[in-house]
Amino acid sequence: MKDIQINQETEMANAIRALAMDAVQKANSGHPGMPMGMADVATVLFNRFMSIDPAAPKWPDRDRFVLSAGHGSMLVYAIHHLLGYADMDMDQLRNFRQLGSRTAGHPEYGHADGIEVTTGPLGQGIATAVGMALAEKMKNARYGDDSVDHFTYVIAGDGCLMEGISHEAIDLAGHLGLGKLVVMWDDNAITIDGDTNLSTSTDQQARFAAAGWHVSACDGHDMNAIAEAIEAARLDPRPSLIACRTIIGFGAPNKQGSHDVHGAPLGDAEIAAARKQLNWAYEPFEIPASIYDSWHQIAARGAHKRAEWEQRLSVEFRATEPCDTSALPGAIEAYKRKLSQDKPNVATRKASQMALEVVNATLPFTVGGSADLTGSNLTKSSKMQSVTPQDFSGDYIHYGIREHGMAAAMNGIALHGGLKPYGGTFMAFADYCRPAIRLSALMGVPVTYVMTHDSIGLGEDGPTHQPVEHLASLRAIPNLLVMRPADAVETAEAWEIAMMSKDKPVMIVASRQNLPLQRTQHEAENLTARGAYLLRDPAKRDVTLIATGSEVEIAIAAADLLAADGIKAAVVSAPCFELFEAQDKAYRDTILGTAPRVGCEAAIRQGWDLFLDREDGFVGMRGFGASAPAPALYNHFNITAEAIASQAKNLI
Amino acid sequence: MKDIQINQETEMANAIRALAMDAVQKANSGHPGMPMGMADVATVLFNRFMSIDPAAPKWPDRDRFVLSAGHGSMLVYAIHHLLGYADMDMDQLRNFRQLGSRTAGHPEYGHADGIEVTTGPLGQGIATAVGMALAEKMKNARYGDDSVDHFTYVIAGDGCLMEGISHEAIDLAGHLGLGKLVVMWDDNAITIDGDTNLSTSTDQQARFAAAGWHVSACDGHDMNAIAEAIEAARLDPRPSLIACRTIIGFGAPNKQGSHDVHGAPLGDAEIAAARKQLNWAYEPFEIPASIYDSWHQIAARGAHKRAEWEQRLSVEFRATEPCDTSALPGAIEAYKRKLSQDKPNVATRKASQMALEVVNATLPFTVGGSADLTGSNLTKSSKMQSVTPQDFSGDYIHYGIREHGMAAAMNGIALHGGLKPYGGTFMAFADYCRPAIRLSALMGVPVTYVMTHDSIGLGEDGPTHQPVEHLASLRAIPNLLVMRPADAVETAEAWEIAMMSKDKPVMIVASRQNLPLQRTQHEAENLTARGAYLLRDPAKRDVTLIATGSEVEIAIAAADLLAADGIKAAVVSAPCFELFEAQDKAYRDTILGTAPRVGCEAAIRQGWDLFLDREDGFVGMRGFGASAPAPALYNHFNITAEAIASQAKNLI
């Protein structure tokens, strides 16, 4: 291994190495190998290229930095400390990975200033960065270079590039030609199990080139070579991959270059040896003033750029920060009034498209899309224009058959700010993008998922396409609002909630089959926001029927059957379990009543204990679906008004 | 478009086209475009290369055919009918997509003979085929060419190649050099939204070449060109991609080549025009005898090959079909007896590795692996040898950082027969492979998933790595057994259940942190097979505490606290909800008792209504975790013996 030339930039990098190995050692937990290996690359990137202002972490036109290899979180924390982020003092580094500190094991969006995205689940960072770079292109097309003109830089590891989501991400980025996206691959030939040649032989540069990327390689420990590679990447009109040849744990003389250094503290002896190797004469968590000065110059340069930007900022752009949704409630209420007169009998996926005509006409910053199911998800409203590699002024994305890449890209678009993304696929394929949905919820990013074909009601495509457990599995994700509207009015209300949401992702679950309007009486209030409400409320109820989405129609029919036998049934529509759970006890008790209950949903019962006791009834699915026309399936699986009525009678 | 030369092989292909368009029309649902576009390629493959025997659909050494583009299911059904599969008479085709027919909307494993794998969720087929081709290599290395020597052929569409899982699959196949895997890509440049150039610009041949594949292209409507390409693919030592340039809906003169023909019936007029175009003079569902004769010759050739194979079949190989697990229960019982003496205090992930020493020593056909977390999942037992591109005689797979590809490959290995695969990753990343886990359950394929680091108990890595909703979301999948053992004995019992399972996948969920032995009294019976059982059973109980995995220790401590206050608490260990639900009511009532209950699991409550009524207590998680040492987190989230005891007291 070549000797390090001792110069100021290398010293800046060694400060990262020292803080990383010392913090991991103190926590007795963490990953020193990656920060030490990529310290030179990261230092050159920040020292010579990055435009950020620690005093204004949310400056909209800042360069974005995404650490896709999130386990190397100490790289970011060390850099933020050295740059002078106010919330990243040395005590935060001393408390790395401790309860309540900002220095979580993996970078957590919202925990510390300047963390652009939560990473750790591999591949998510690079795929989210594609959304950020896409948002930059779209906003640049709308507002011009004066307002939006920045780069998105990613540090990715071998794991990020092995994960399937990376294929979806680079394919989409290459197709759209996101030239201001620069991925620096930590090409250290090491994974947790050992050498990368245990499990991969892919020529990554050839792979990225096949996807339309500009590719290059450099010695990740040669400052000028790194700078030349980044400069070339910035100039090329294609997205760029730089294979940075690095030694994992660089500077730890006895452990570097091996997987032993990946995910465990180095130990006091090796840390002492590394200090010697790096000529680093300072105590743990001690940084000399001259090093701070060098890093602070980066911050000063960024502050100057931000001041210039504020001078020339376009009026149009100012108006987009933040997204103003104040006009929506009025528009939705007017639309609901019209619905109560028109009484459309449409699938809720169609009702979703109808609502989108109102939403997209009212909110100029929505960005629609679908994973190649535009005509099935009905996510494109009449005036939407597709974004193309030649023209980014549109507002609809053809994400391709890439559910996972779509979800991560939507996270990136939402995190970038000023645009409100939504995207669709078949609900069964929510499984394909679940890791990115989870990150939406964990970060509290208000993206909207449109999941159509939401039950056996989709019919002939059969069990691979029929959600059965998906409502339960998605309701299980904390901080995600799962909405299953029963008709066009609830669908409009769900869209209002989704667009007004500031800190929660929302999933709108829609039927393939037509559903009659249930909310024939206009109500100004957004009843869906209550989570569940009484659709039919007899004076004194003998039984309470609770249903969601396409099964509300069946519960109403069951109530009619029971009425014919002189049994009074209340009918509750429950479009959103999470919002009902958030209501006060008095409201919940009023809705649930004290009579026996029967729940109905063309899905498994799991999760229904919010409404039902174990002795209550439930009409739904007990296993996978089947391939047949929808009416035949509802009969076959006995999800019928008759089944609800007979369970109700047994309970009374 | 070039005229079709009318010869017998083209007629054989036109028979597929006619059956596909007629069956879709009669069902008024389905996808005619792909079967009509790929009819020539499929006909050449079967007519000139495939070795299968419809009279012996499970012949172990048959060539495997995987229709990854599962929506084109009529291609398979038509071929199986023409070949003379006994269970695929013309009535099955007339009842395409109807309730109870074998001709489901997408090919369903187990519904009809010769369906090698359930497909439809895009990319799953090609990734499962990688597992089949890997199994072929492994068994060939063990038993020789006389016993195992066949090809695995895949037809994949643009969607399959856009999905992220395809990257994981081709990367793994290229690395291992699975030369007898041949993927025929239906390169028709059409997706549902329109032309592929709406969403992708990837050079697929260059992409596959970068992953170490042999690549070629051919006119997918030129019989001899197709044959030459397949022959070259068979000869090349690398896995092969053949880009088959086809016209979607080939033969439908007014609709072919457009996405209109992808997923909707052609309509009577266009079908009539297609009959004219193809010179197909026969009625719907009418096939002339000469065409049947040609297809039956393929079956006859396969029957002959099978007879030859049975002649030369090695004794060793005969012994492997089916996997004989009869020796395992005795070995596990002896091991449990030893545990009750040794009383190990180990993490259940370590206990899993200890159990694997017994399992792998007893069952020579297990195949272990991990998604690059071997040292964390502890999935490799002491005598296991890694499979390498040079040597397939080993029994451990380094799947790489490819959870999704691993799960699909395990499905393929299990479907191939004679090997029993298991593989590990962190439980939080079960989300990454969920679509393949769902297919394991839907197909009833007995693969074993080892999911370690199963709660906030993993500590510092934080919320991205801490499962909170995963137990609920995985228990929601029908036909999947989720096991969360509390100690080394339950872990051994879980492994016994997993290895004995014939029709269900099993997931073994394991802790990172150490857990004391709870089952200190040896019991011959596999109590874990009961799903839940009484670990502590006082004469007359005041309260019942129910816990799983690492929280059983906490429930026991709570029972001790309560005992100090003179409160008698029964403690139930509930390692498998699905198996408890399957017990008879009498048993369940005995376990649950009539006293108030408190459940405890370091996860959300969803799914616990199997044990708890709404008024019962629950100690667990209400949202995402955090980054800190495990003990700090258990205190922070109040998952403690004190919390359980106080809830118990409030209920009594």
TrEMBL record, chains A, B:
Family from the record: Belongs to the transketolase family.
Pfam families xref list: Transket_pyr, Transketolase_C_1, Transketolase_N
Source species: Thioclava arctica
Keyword annotations from UniProtKB, A to Z: Calcium, Magnesium, Metal-binding, Thiamine pyrophosphate, Transferase
Official protein name in the record: Transketolase
SMART domains: Transket_pyr
Gene behind this protein: tkt
Requisite cofactors: thiamine diphosphate; Mg(2+); Ca(2+); Mn(2+)
Function: Catalyzes the transfer of a two-carbon ketol group from a ketose donor to an aldose acceptor, via a covalent intermediate with the cofactor thiamine pyrophosphate.
